[in-house]
Amino acid sequence: MEILDARGLECPLPVVKTKELLKEIDKVKVLVDNEIAIENLTKFAGVRHYQIVTGDDGDDFYAIIAKEGIDEELDFNEKSGDVVVISSETMGNNEELGAILMKSFIFALTKQDQLPKEMIFYNEGIFLTTNEGDILNDLKYLESQGVDIVSCGTCLDFFKRKELLQVGTVTNMYDIVERMEKAEKIIKP
Hints:
Blueprint: E1 2-5, H1 13-22, E2 27-32, H2 35-48, E3 51-56, E4 61-66, H3 72-77, E5 82-86, H4 95-110, E6 118-121, H5 127-130, H6 134-144, E7 148-152, H7 153-158, E8 169-171, H8 173-182, E9 185-187
Parallel strand pairs: 1-2, 5-6, 5-9, 6-7, 7-8
Antiparallel strand pairs: 2-4, 3-4
């Protein structure tokens, strides 16, 4: 097993370097210096269906990731379904009209025969997953129907809204890019 020292590297470099290393070997121990890096590595391993064990050595954290015979090529090429990507609280330039349109758009999603597989919220779009109201109720409904809802952790931190997250989970830009890359179709209102 190889050891990758990723301490001090900014997101998403610990994941990127781990992914590159796992192209050559089947198991790696990654050393990082924060819990966010561990969360990102855990999400990476989950998407790839790799096995992961995490822990801490006092000051630093580690993740041991193993492929365990996963067919990596099949996993990379498999399309995941439709992905809705939302980067704003509104649709279009007019703020008042845009808020009405976004509310209607998300409500209309709840009425479709085929729901999206995933919804990604980043930039000011994260306000939709952190504010109370009709949109939040529709998002909770979509989540209850199996739609995977994620919000950008960097964006939640930037706007100081991480503790206000009401629906879905926190993710990172590496995961967002992978989700978009695997999408059959990206829908952006």
